[in-house]
Amino acid sequence: MAAPDAELPPSGLPAAGDGLPAPGRADEWQVVTATERGAAHRAAGIPNQDAVATCPLERGGMVAAVADGHGHSRHFRSARGARLAVSIACQAARDLATRPGGLPRPGEAEDDLRRVLVPGIVTRWRGAVRADVAAEPFTGAENAVRRGDDATVPYGTTLLLAIGQGERLLLAQIGDGDIVGIAPDGTALPPVPGDPLLDGRHTTSLCSPGAGDSFRVAAVDLTGTPLLGALLATDGYGNAQVAQAWEAGVSADLAGLITTHPPSWLAGQLPEWAGQCASLDGSADDTTLALLLAPAAAAVPGPGVTAP
What we know:
The chain has nine helices and ten strands. By secondary structure, it is α+β, with helices and mostly antiparallel strands. It has a single domain, classed as 4-Layer Sandwich (Phosphatase 2c, domain 1). Strand 4 (about 160-165) and strand 5 form a beta hairpin. Helix 2 packs across helix 3. The longest helix is centred in the middle third of the chain and has 27 residues, at about 110-135. The radius of gyration is 19 Å and the shape is globular. Mean pLDDT is about 90; it is low at about 1-25 and about 300-308.
């Protein structure tokens, strides 16, 4: 948890200036990312257990995936598990978008995510883990730690996935971490349902039996629910915030920054925000962020900017 007096970004950042938003196509999604090893892991000599990946889609679409390897001794290859998860999630999202008919239409999207996307991710991830073990078998010491666990358990990881294309935003998540939708007025939208199994110490995981049933999914039609974008964050970010209900303040700050600064500026700031959250003054945990920017982010003028 955060130190009582910590003030962590983006909440509390200086007011945005008069920079114009980046030019872009009217249908183009963009993404900026950052990841930082937690201070606790640095002190212990443990590598960053988080991973992040992005990939473009046709017609200006974009995919962002964030994963948080569990890091516990039982999950001694979780950094690999996280890297496999984000790569496979991006591949599965691209396959969904490039099939005949493209991404599912509103009203069908959540069912398609559960029926097609989620099982594909789980099956591919488990297959990739087993291929990794075949290429580098567990050592005697690792098998002693496993104590009969399924081969996927050492690779255990959470996963957050966002797919933006046109006026559609499709989301899928297993385990902890946060997805926050950012409305033009700064309101925070929590589009993905919560998980009652999360208690702050335990999380659902890709390595869990029946992992597909633990995914939460959502589909946002931006024609009816306008958004500037969505923030995907591992729990190192949320645990670093002073306010318990931090999403509202962060969303309000980001809305102001998105509409007054280009993505290149945001890309320069994200590592600083992740670094502060991963520090001893924050959560001291690995912190990874992906800020997916909707086409509306480039179309909404900031204060003092006149729309063309």
